[in-house]
Each structure stands twice: as C-alpha cells, then as structure tokens.
Amino acid sequence: MEPTTSIVDELDDLVSYERGEIDRRIFSDQEIFDLEMKHIFGRAWLFLCHETQIPRRGDFFEAPMGTDNVLVVRQRDGSIKAFLNTCSHRGNAVCRAEEGNVRNFMCTYHGWTFGLDGELVGVPGKQMFYKDKLDLSEHPLRKVAQLDSYRGFVFATFDETAPPLGEYLGATGRLGLDLIAERGDMEAVPGVQKFVVKTNWKFTVDNVFDYYHPQITHMSAFAVGTLKAPTPDVMDGGALTEEGARLEVPFLPTDLHNLVMVGEYGHAISGPEQSALEENIGHVTPFEWRYKPETQARLGDVGSRVAGHPHIFPTAWVTAIGQLSLRVPRSPDETEIWWFSFRDRNATEEQKAAALSTQIHFFGPAGMLEQEDGENWSQSTLQTQGHKSREVPQLLKMGLNTVDIHRKDGLAFIEAPINEHGQMWTYLAWREWLRNPSWDELRERTVPGDRL
Amino acid sequence: MSTTEARLDSQDAVLGNVLLQHEVEQFYFHESGLLDEHRYAEWIALFTDDTHYFMPLRRTVPRRQLHREFTKPGEMAFFDETKELLATRVEKLNTGTAWAEDPPSRTRHLITNIRIAEQNGGELVVQSNFMLYRTRLKSDVDVWVGRRDDTLRRTSDGLAIARRFIYLDQTVLQSANLSNFF
Predict the structure, then answer these.
(1) Domain Rieske spans what residues (chain A) (predicted)?
(2) E strand or H helix that includes residue A13
(3) What is the crossing angle of helices A165-181 and A293-303, to 10°?
(4) Which end of chain A has fewer CB atoms < 10 Å from its terminal CB, N or C?
C-alpha cells in the first residue's frame, strides 16, 4: 500500500519566500487547521484577558484558547488561575456565562462542584453511590500548563515546556503591549465586542500588517473624514473604476515611511513611523502620553518610532488607539473577532468619552473602517475552496528581498515604504510552528536574518 | 356625570389611543420603507438634533446577574451615535466607495409588537420588536431580531426620534458587520 501523503510534507512549497507565494490551500484545508490547533494553539502563549476585567475574587471571564474555552478566575489570594471549562465527569461546560462572579462552579448535569481554583470540592452521592472510592483530588478541572501576566495582560499556554512569557514575547511582543500600557493607568472598558466572520484566521492576521489596503478598502472612511484625508501630492494611479475612469489612489505621506519589526516565534510590527503620522495629522495631542520621559525610555529609540500595528503571534493585534483585537479560529472558514478596549483611569470624563467614541467608530462590526474588512476576507477564503481557484498562488511580493534588517535594543527592524514583510514573516514563522520543532529549534529558526 | 357620558368619555379615550397607536405605527412603517429603499437622507431627517442612537453589547450572564446583561452608555457598544455621527454614516454610504454596501444589501425591516409605554407631554416612550432580514451577494443571509426602546418627540414636522436604544437578541454577533441601520 502506498503511504498516504500529507499536505504537511509540502510545507516548503506552501510558503515560498523565494517566489513570494503562498499556497491557498492553507486557508481552507482541514488537516492544516487541525495541525494549527495542535502545534500552534496547543503550544503558544495565548492572550486571555486583562487583569482589570476580573478585579475581585470569584470574578471570571471565559476566554478562547484555539478551539478550547478556559475560565480565567481571580483566586481568594488575588492570583489568577485558568482551566478548561469542561466537567471532569461528563464534559459538560461547568459555566454557561461569558463573565461574572461566583463562589464556585457547579456543573448543571450532575452537580459536581469545583472551587475557584478548579479543585473538585463536591460530588453528590459520594458516600451512597461512589462508596467513598472516588478520590476528588484526582479529578479537578484541567488547568492550563502555565499562566502569567505582562503589565496586566494575562496569557496562558497548554505547554509546560514553553519558555517564560517575557521570553516568548521578546522585545517585539513586549513593545506591542507597552504601547497600550504606557498610555496611563490602563483598565479594560466594560464589554468585549464579539462577532463572527466567515474567514480563515490567517486572513485576519495578514490584514494587521497591510497598509496597502486602507486607501482602497476604507476609501469611504477617508472621504467622510474618519481617517485624515491625504494630501493630493501623493496620488498614484493604477486603479481604474468599472466605468473606466482613472481612480487616483490617495496614498498618505505615512505610506512612504513605514517601520517593520520582526521577532522570534513570529511576532511582528508593521506600520507607519510615528513622526510621519504626526506630520500627517498636524498635531501631537492624541500622542502626548508618548512624550513622558519614562515612556520614551521604556519604548527606546526605535520603539518610540512605532505608530502601529504590533502583532503577537499567533492572533493578538494591538491597534494604535488602545485596543487589542483577538482573532479566534473556530473552523478553517470561521473566525470570531474579539475586541478588548482600554482606557486610562486617570483621564477626564471628556477624554474617556472621546477615546471610547474613536474605538467604537473605527473598529468592531459597525466600525467605519472594519465594516468593509469582513467581506474582503470571507470572499478571499471562499476562493481558496474553488477547485481551480485554489491553484492560483497568493502573492506576497511587495518589497520582497529588497531590504536589510537593522538591529537595536533587541529589536530587528526594517525601514521601507508600504511592504509585505510583516505578512511574509508571519507565514514563514507559521511554517516552522507547523513542523512542531522543540522550543529551542523553533526559536533558532525564527531568528531574523540580515535581509527580508 | 351620567353613565352614558362616562361611557362616551371612555370610548373617546380608547379612540384616542387607537389613533395614537395608528400614528406611531404609520411612522415606523414609513421609516422602515425609507431604510429598505436606501433613502438615507430622508431617514436621518426623522431624528431630532439631540438624538442618542445606541446599541449596547449583550452578554450571557446567569439569571441572578441579569442587571449586567447589557453594557451601558460610557461602556463598549456597537453603536453610540449623536445625530452628527449618524449623518456621517449616511454620508459614508453615499460616497460611492462604501464597499460593504456596494453592491447594496437587500434588507427588510419588520416592526411589530408596538407598545406605547408612556406619554409625557410632547414625548412618547415606545417599545417595538424588530426583525431585520438582510441578504448579500449570492447567498449571504443575516437576521437580527431584537427590541427597540424609542423616545418619539412631537415636532412641527411630526414625530421625530429623540432616543433609540437597540437591544439585539444575540451576544456573539453572528454576522461580519453591521452596515445597516436598525
């Protein structure tokens, strides 16, 4: 019998740096998705929630870890634990609510009861039916392997051999979270927007680094002033309307000055330089928090030049307006998007209201920007399912192999106009994760080289 | 007052309520038609200048914590609009480059169970149920069902919406966007 072939044997071809091409099958193949759940979401440190979402003992928040769901719970001693939301008896969810406050979790199937620490503390019929032969200590809720916080952001991993969180995040990942934490005494705004897009999760991640799309996808948001409209001297043609008219694409001055950072394990940052952004907006008022001496020192010379779009591998995007967007894979062609929004406790009521209004009106399903994104991604995903359409490669050729990688403060960075380096870096790292190497090997293989 | 007069007064009150109910229903049916026909400029004119259009987030919570089910103004929401912000959304739809609605969605607003809960001088507090059915492209279908709590104000141009709070019957929103109005 012929050995069965696996799409994984073709990994080198699925993501080709040499050609700048991606095989579309990675966006719809069930085997790939199952391996992603096992080798990426089963091992990586994943963002769960912010500490301020669960301030009091007994507060909980149900968070996704890949296709699993965990309860993140504030303990009696103030620490935080997380465990799978599945009863050790028949598997029923021991908690049906998304968030709240409890003294313990009681399974509504047979009444097995678990403490805030996940330990089994009560079993109906323990004497009468189990004849006292059930050792409760052997059947707690299954805990995550490691849980830790970085500046209030709670992460966990199912892999006990994973490196510590700080090391996993590296300089690039930490910088991403610093760009929220440095804004003030940050707390989560009550309410996490959650919605479903019929797309593969990797399209949503790809888009984080994509500064090529706003001028077209979000053209209407520029037109009504949600985004600062570009000056007319950076127009570049190339697009033609359906009626044959030349569509002047209004590129921004910031589009010529982008900063890319690539880090171990697949973290990346890509977006405009802060100075270019301030020049385009014409004032620095929204960015005053950046100019505190301690913040400048924390971010460093290169880090303080970043205006946007850090991404913590595999699915946590830090926006430029104090939000974290988590992309939750549910199936090869379905992804939930969860928006966590933050505010400075010490801001005035007017400042808080203005920041919240920006967050509501930029992103989320009704956001003036994000309204337009979902259909691009769902249509792109749909085309990866066509028998012939999926043979057409996905292109990542912009700027490919044209730039040197520089190093400072532990960061590996690139200066370039709009490019696709961030996306390419993410897919290259994704390829290495799928080979399921040891942590040391994974780190070694995702150390940036001298060129990208 | 004779029993006959009392009966006539009572009938007048009933008739008054019927006429008011009819007026409010006709207002909503007119409004729904404007939305389904993409006549957004006329739709936005139905709101007062000080209007507040708000769609909170909804969360699955236990019965004993139902007071925490919806977010409140000042917290995260899907819509939190002044008249000016609503007008910007309308303006966006009219740019010709709002791709989420081009090709346009086909929508049908069904408004039912209209209850006039309060009458305070020139203002009515009205609750209604809605179903918004949307199809897009070849086979995309979205359905949103929920309740609207409106404050309708009498103006020289007729009724106007001074406040609209929209409570969706979904927690994790089952659609890729909210590019239509409720």
Answers:
(1) 46-125
(2) helix A11-14
(3) 120
(4) N
